[in-house]
Design brief:
The complex is a heterodimer of chains A (315) and B (299). With 315 residues, chain A is an all-alpha fold. In chain A, 77% of the residues lie in helices and 0% in strands. In chain A, helix 8 crosses helix 13. Chain A is globular, with a radius of gyration of 23 Å. The longest helix of chain B has 37 residues. Classes of the chains: A mainly alpha (315), B mainly alpha (299).
Chain lengths: 315, 299
């Protein structure tokens, strides 16, 4: 187990290395002097020089990269051009809303998607199955903000059941916290849930054709027990994989959802930074989100060994 | 299927190396598939409305009529007007031209670059290791965020936006093509061709390329839909195509500030985006099922 863990951890190093090179290289893709772009249209030459100095843009590129990667590894993601505060500090300050939203979304998406996938597989090729899968395809085709506004108009404004926008911390009470997260997590979770539902159905169908399912049925087990106790467990690995890989979708969607619902999280920070061309912040967010994505998928890999003990021996 | 995380999609796709029959039989099978024909019909309708926009729209999509601003959909303005009094029906039809162009261009660019890199990776073991590390790295960055960063930093016109959307999707194509090459390389008939002294270039064109095309077309269909969706997201976040050109994303981005009093400015173009992406996804699914009998049963 430990060997497997170390092996998997080592495998993430080259991936994160390439991510770092890409993120670092972004600033040099700017067609004009990056310092001038960052400084804005009305900057004085002195201000541009100051930024060039701050980002060390006048040194050779390999040297810049080494200096930058050294900083990053010691936990320094640079300073925001706009607020002049450390990027890491800015991200940490916005962490709570984003983590709450992400966790809530995973919870909502999995609880909706897995049963839908199971039912669709059980009722395969019926009208119900086709309707559910058409719905799932629609779910990955609709722009997230469109769903968000639709929910705001119907549930928040017309019915008045939930708040329109904003965020409430858990310290303000459980209901304010949850009520502010329901619409955003449905918005963000639609595409994610659609994805999970499709894979659940596919994986379940594969398993339902196998002999041990027929045996379980022949023993006289009720369908519900066969589906959940036998089939879903055996079908779990692709489902868990997609929950991990789909996390990228979730991270990207956070940026859009937070801006529709005015949630002061990392997504909102990203959008503000886009408008201000605050490149160090954009780089920092990219780096942090990619690291989180890689770690989530590492955890998914480790989860395999719990779901299927055979994988441990194979490693 | 287009949003299937990139790493996952390819595994299913690499097995899609199956004899495909002629182009004509493929078309006739597609036509008999109800999902595919629905998707195709929807797509033809939407693309037709974009191509024929100058004939179908009675108003100038750019004409400002301040007296008519923020009118709800009516007989005079089928989809209402925006905050500058421009006719939304005309803007949505014309916007479709740009949005569809972005989708098609992205799909073509991804396919060409991905095909080239994938072939190299499949053929050269040395390049393969390096190329696949770089692809893994690109795939570890959430696609929308990478597109946002590229679009913001490089800035500017339609071509940059297309590239920004294309770059995060290229690894998907590379993995599909590489998978095909790796499978085919071991096939007996390729072995035979090689032992007869056929040059690698000829093997590539005669055997590898035709077999890569089918899975490539499936991916291109998904990428086209995804690109239309991401164009909308980029514009919505203020990192998209410059606002003077109407695209579905731009129209919605401009309507953001007025969403509480004029929701149609966002809901109508959004419905066009959703319908187009749905049509492309249905078509992509149908194509994939036809090309890979293994997934036909399940997905």
């Amino acid at each position: 187990m430990l060997r497997y863990l170390v092996q998997r951890l080592m495998a993430t190093i080259p991936v994160m290395g390439v991510v770092a090179i890409i993120v670092f290289g972004l600033i040099h893709l700017s067609p004009t002097d990056p310092a001038a772009v960052i400084a804005g249209d009305y900057a004085t030459p002195a201000h541009v020089a100051e930024i060039r100095e701050q980002l060390q843009l006048d040194r050779p590129i390999p040297e810049q990269f080494l200096a930058w990667i050294g900083q990053v590894l010691s936990g320094d993601l640079g300073d925001s051009i706009f607020s002049e505060r450390p990027v890491l500090q800015l991200i940490m300050a916005r962490l709570e809303p984003t983590v709450s939203l992400a966790l809530m979304t995973i919870l909502v998406a999995v609880t909706i998607a897995v049963p839908i996938g199971v039912v669709a597989a059980w009722q395969a090729r019926t009208l119900l199955d086709r309707a559910l899968m058409l719905l799932a395809t629609l779910g990955i085709s609709v722009p997230a903000f469109w769903i968000g506004y639709l929910l705001i108009f119907s549930v928040a404004l017309d019915l008045g059941w939930l708040p329109v926008q904003g965020y409430a911390s858990l310290s303000e009470g459980l209901w304010p916290f949850l009520s502010h997260l329901i619409l955003p997590s449905v918005t963000l979770g639609t595409a994610y849930a659609a994805l999970i539902a499709r894979i659940t159905r596919a994986s379940m169908l594969e398993v339902l054709g196998q002999d041990f399912i027929r045996t379980a049925r022949a023993k006289g087990l009720p369908m519900r027990k066969v589906l959940i106790g036998h089939a879903l467990r055996a079908a779990a690995i692709p489902i868990v994989t997609v929950i991990g890989l789909g996390f990228a979708l979730l991270i990207g969607g956070v940026v859009i959802t937070e801006s529709v619902f005015a949630i002061p999280g990392i997504g909102r920070l990203t959008v503000d930074s886009i408008q201000r061309k605050d490149i160090p912040v954009i780089q920092g967010v990219l780096l942090v989100f990619s690291a989180v994505y890689v770690i989530v998928n590492l955890l998914v890999d480790l989860l395999y060994t719990l779901l299927d003990p055979r994988i441990r021996y194979a490693a | 299927m287009r949003s299937l995380p990139r790493a996952f999609r390819t595994d299913a796709q690499t097995s899609a190396v199956k004899p495909t029959g002629t182009f004509a039989t493929t078309l006739s099978r597609l036509w008999r598939n109800p999902t595919a024909s629905f998707g195709a019909a929807l797509l033809v309708l939407l693309a037709g409305s974009a191509v024929l926009a100058p004939l179908l729209a009675l108003h100038d999509p750019l004409a400002l009529v301040p007296a008519e601003r923020l009118r709800a959909p009516s007989h005079a303005h089928l989809f209402g007007t925006d905050m500058l009094g421009r006719d939304l029906y005309a803007r949505v039809l014309h916007g479709g031209r740009l949005s569809l162009t972005v989708g098609i261009l992205t799909a073509v660019i991804c396919s060409l670059i991905g095909l080239a890199i994938g072939l190299v990776a499949g053929f050269s073991r040395l390049a393969d290791a390096l190329i696949m590390r770089v692809m893994d790295g690109i795939m570890a960055i959430p696609g929308i965020l990478l597109a946002i960063a590229l679009a913001t930093i490089v800035g500017g016109g339609v071509s940059t936006i297309v590239l920004a959307i294309a770059v995060p999707e290229i690894p998907v194509v590379v993995r599909v093509v590489r998978g095909v090459v790796l499978t085919l390389r071991e096939q007996t008939y390729v072995e035979a061709a090689r032992s007869l002294g056929t040059r690698p270039g000829r093997i590539l064109i005669r055997h590898i390329l035709p077999n890569s095309l089918a899975p490539l077309v499936v991916q291109a269909t998904y990428i086209c839909g995804l690109a239309i969706l991401i164009e909308a997201y980029l514009s919505f976040l203020g990192a998209g195509i410059p606002p003077e050109f109407p695209s579905w994303g731009n129209i919605m981005a401009e309507g953001r500030g007025f969403v509480l009093i004029a929701e149609w400015i966002i809901l109508i173009p959004g419905a066009f985006v959703a319908a187009t992406v749905l049509a492309l996804n249905l078509l992509g699914d149908a194509l994939r099922d036809m090309l890979d009998p293994r997934t036909r049963r399940t997905l």
